[in-house]
Design brief:
Blueprint: H1 7-23, H2 28-40, H3 51-64, H4 75-82, H5 85-105
Helix pairs in contact: 1-2, 1-5, 2-4, 3-5
Length: about 110
């Protein structure tokens, strides 16, 4: 059972994030940071309707908070900076996967 956040709201936020990933001219780390901060944080795994979606969101949260904030940079930015290129690509793929899954359920 999904949490207190509506499925339309979740899907809309992930759609905005994917749009930014696809259309921004910034490097991938910056695009993920810019998408994550306004659109992908603040949810709980329980807000997601299925076990696989919850697991994917937990993966994103773990990746976004694997490094401590440093100076002006928050944990999302420092975590992305510490990732390999392959890890950054996997984060982007998970964001897209969640967007597709949520959209299919709306």
């Amino acid at each position: 059972m999904a949490g207190t956040v509506g499925l339309d709201y979740l899907a809309g936020n992930f759609e905005k994030a994917v749009d930014l990933l696809a259309t921004s001219e910034s490097d991938l780390r910056t695009r993920i940071r810019d998408a994550a901060i306004p659109d992908l944080v603040g949810f709980q795994p329980e807000d997601f309707p299925g076990e696989e979606d919850r697991a994917d969101y937990e993966f994103l949260q773990q990746q976004f908070h694997r490094a401590e904030p440093a100076g002006q940079a928050g944990s999302i930015e420092t975590s992305l900076a510490a990732m390999t290129d392959d890890e950054v690509v996997e984060v982007a793929k998970r964001i897209r996967k969640l967007e597709l899954s949520l959209r299919a359920q709306v």
